[in-house]
Each structure stands twice: as C-alpha cells, then as structure tokens.
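Hey, weird one. I pasted the NADH-quinone oxidoreductase subunit G sequence into the form twice and got a warning about non-standard characters only the second time. First submission, copied straight from the form history:
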Amino acid sequence: MSKYMIIDGNRVDFDSEKNILQVVKKAGIHLPTFCYYSDLSIYGACRMCVVEDQWGGIIASCSTPPKDKMIIKTNTPKLHQHRKMILELLLASHCGDCKVCEKNGSCRLQLLAGRFGLKEIRFKQEEPKHEIDKSSKSIVRNPNKCILCGDCVRVCNEVQNVGAIGFANRGAKMVVSPAFNKNLAETDCVNCGQCAAVCPTAAITITKSTKEVWKAIYDPTKRVVVQVAPAVRVAIGEAFGLNPGKNTMGKIFKAMRMLGFDQVFDTSVGADLTIMEEVAELGKKLESGDTKYPLFTSCCPAWIRYAETKHPELLSYISSCKSPMEMFGAVLKEYYKPADKEEEKETVSVAVMPCAAKKSEAAREEFIRNGIPDVDYVITTNELIHMIKEEGIQFTKIEPEAPDMPFSIASGSGVIFGATGGVTEAALRKVVSDKTNKSLQEIEYSGIRGFEGIKTADISLGDKTVRIAVVSGLGNAEEIIRRIQSGEDHFDFVEVMACPGGCIAGAGQPFSHKPEKLDRTAGLYKADKTSVIKRSEENPVITQLYQNDCLKGREHELLHVHYQRKE
C-alpha cells in the first residue's frame, strides 16, 4: 500500500521523495525557496519553504522527510505573515539599486517580493557597507546583495571541491567571503562561475565586457571578428521563448551581423583544430609507454586553474593544446594581419562563450603575443542576449545565415565539444582506423555519452585497449585523480570539464536545471547527426589551414601552450 500525505486537505501519494518540499511540488504547489537547490546538500536557512503541521507547528519542508499519513498546510495566515516578514527583513538589509541591477527582472528576491505583493518595507533600510570585489577577471562579488542562502558556498565546496568562499563571522555580522577577507583573485578560485550561476540575487555575477565590445564595433578603424562556442547555439534561444536544445546557430550569425560584427565564425572550427593536435599528442603518449598518468584534456580553463593550484604534479601530463577558443583566436589574428596592414585597420577578436573562466583565460599572459592578446574580449551567452535585446532584434523572426569564409565549415565532432564526453568522442572518431558509420555508432554507445559525473570506457585501438575517463565537475575530477594516484585505477586519456554536464551548463548560459541541460546536450548531438562532415580530419577548412602560410610550420607557436604552477 502506497504512503501518502494530506496536503491542504488533499491526499498526495509519495514514494522516493526525500523531503516534504518535493511532495508538495508533486501536489502542484510551488513553495518559495532561496537556499534549496536539489543538486546540493540541504541547508534550510531561508525558512521560506516552511509548512504548518496538524498541531500548528512550523517546520522547514526542505529538511524534513515526509511521513506516512502526515497532515500539513502550506498556506495559512501564520505562514503568509512569516514569509512576508522574512522578505521584508531581507529587503531592508539588501542593496536597493534594483532598477539598475543586472538581475532586475530575474532576481529571485525581487520576484518573490512581487509574488507576495510587498508594497512597503517597515524596517529601516541599511546602507551598503561592504566593498565590491572586482579583483577577478571573471567574477564580481557584491556582499551588499547577499541574502546568506549559502548556495554559492555549497556549490564551490561540494561540487567543485575548491572552497574559495565560505561563511565568516556570526549573527548579524555574518558574510560570505574568501578566507581572511581576501579578494577573490587572491584565492584558489578557478573562475568557473558556478557560484554566480546559483546565486538568487546579484551578490555574485560574471564580469561584463559588452561596453568594450560596443566601443570596438562603433570604431571605424577596427575590424571586429567574432567566434561563437558550440554550446551557445542550444541555450540562447531560451531567452527568446524557444525550447532548450533548439539549434539557433544560423540566427546567431544573422543577429551578430545586425549588431555590427564584421566577420562571424563558429568556434567548432577551433575544436576541429584541437582534435587534430590532441590526437597526435595522444598517439605519442601511447607510444612512449609512460603510464604513470594519463593525458588530460586542456580545453577547460577552470580545470587548468584547478590543476595549477591543487595538482601541479599533473601539469606536464595535461595536453599542450590550447583551447579551441585560443587556437581559433590565434589563427584569426594571423589570418587578418595582411588585410590589417593594407587597410590600416586593427582586428579585434571577440569570443561568445558559455563560460566565465574563458574571460580569465583570454587575459592570461600565455595567450598574449607581442603585447597583443589572441582573443581581445570574451562575452557570455547572457551578454550576447542582452546585446540582442538592447538593439531590439526579434531573434525568433530573423532568418538564419551562414558563417563567413574562409572558416565557414565545421564538423559534427567540433560541435559536440559543448557536451561532456564530446571531446573524447571527437578524438576517438579521429583515432580509430574504421571510418564507417558503424564505427560512429560503436563510439556513441561506448559509454562516454551521458550526464553522469564520471564515465569510463575501454576502447580497442588495433592491438591496444585504451582506457578512458570522462569527468565533469571538479569534485569528480578530484576523485579520478585520487584513484589514479592510489593505483586503484589506470587511464590513458581523461577528459575534464569543470561545469557539471560540460559547457552546455556553463555559468555564462541562461540559468538551467538538469532537464534543460539534458535538452541542450541532445540539441548538440542532433546538430552532429545532421552534419555532413562528422570527423575533424575530413573538414576541408582544416586541411587548407594546415597548408596556409598563417599556420604552416607554426603549429606549435600558434596552437600549443605549456602551463606552470601558480602560487
């Protein structure tokens, strides 16, 4: 016989629900929350989700397990007053610049204040008393907007295993801060931005570069070229009412031309370049017989930062390949050098990324040659959304267009880089000798696709069996490293993405839960399935590029980098 609860007089059956909140949601009731995030541990601090039991007691629904025949109410005068009081207190201690706040319209505190019809705050408004931390190239902290929900602290500790921020002080003086009140740039922060992704207000946000990009677009002496990462195409449409996973790449190209960008490209071309170089590196690694550590991928800058600060012993085993963004950025700067000289212009390279860490990556000294960065500005998917809306472009109504020549073709392998396991699958397509559709299917079903944090597979390559791991989430990366160093497991190749699910779940994307992330992943695989070219080595643009003067003989200079330990 099934277990049940009585919620507001109605019977609701439950089975595997972990807390009352999940059962209430099953009943079609949306309780307000600030600190509840299903992928994180239960914190129970905000007390917005409280319910009333049959004896009139108030309990937090997020941290209380459901009991058979339990009777609760979700909306009583006592609960209504309780929730409004919490909102008033939060608003009184909150920075009141809502009209110009970047989360105006999407701030959860603002939305709940509207939902509860708050028209006045009966408590004295506190003046901002904390300095805004802009030390990071990727992340801005404004403690004056913090509501102490703890989401950022938990995602940094539990998911990413970084621990760059935590709670400091007690009572009314409690704040979220790096240890010893340091600036964020002085910590081991990896710039992944997952803290900003889960923040319900604008206490933690991603740095903005749209002002600089607009300035470059309006400057007649500048040639502004832009590349767009694979994951952007399946998420940007959500901001315009389209379903998650809808491939809008053609519309993105059109919109960017309408914004004033001179040349528009797909970063998937850079991903194809990465595969060509990385597979060659993997071949050398397998031939060398060095089995102490596997070859780790290098596409994710947050993973690179994590290795630099926590595992410098791994740096010599991380692929020397630049990320697709940096490879393509270097190629674009070299390609336009003759035209810049002839036309007396300067090429400004912009990248649209799903990722906060890409902003820090672009600013690294390793990617600045002769004082000129390979990528001048990185804007996130959300920043591009704001630019499109600012110009009044009706995104859903514009006709799709193709990218510009000569980098107008990308393979399906390059597109799937945006999903966890995509880099590995693209590499396997290149390295296997069987180039038939059957081999594509065998790779697809080898176990490297999926949303699990750790996936492993054994792949036969000729007379060798190559053991592979695919990891997303830095906490999972730490687990794989532990297994390797303890001798518990052995791998030849390990793909690491800092964001759970890969780039489709980057902090620069529209906020999403697991269902949307799964749809985005499916959208990338659908784009791959319909692509004419499946493998990176079959891309004629790549073939031509290796024969072109801008790259020929300069592969190591333009496409590779070596990282050093960071103190």
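That's the output from the first submission. The warning seems to come from a hidden character in my clipboard, not from the data itself. DSSP finds 20 helices and 19 strands in the chain.
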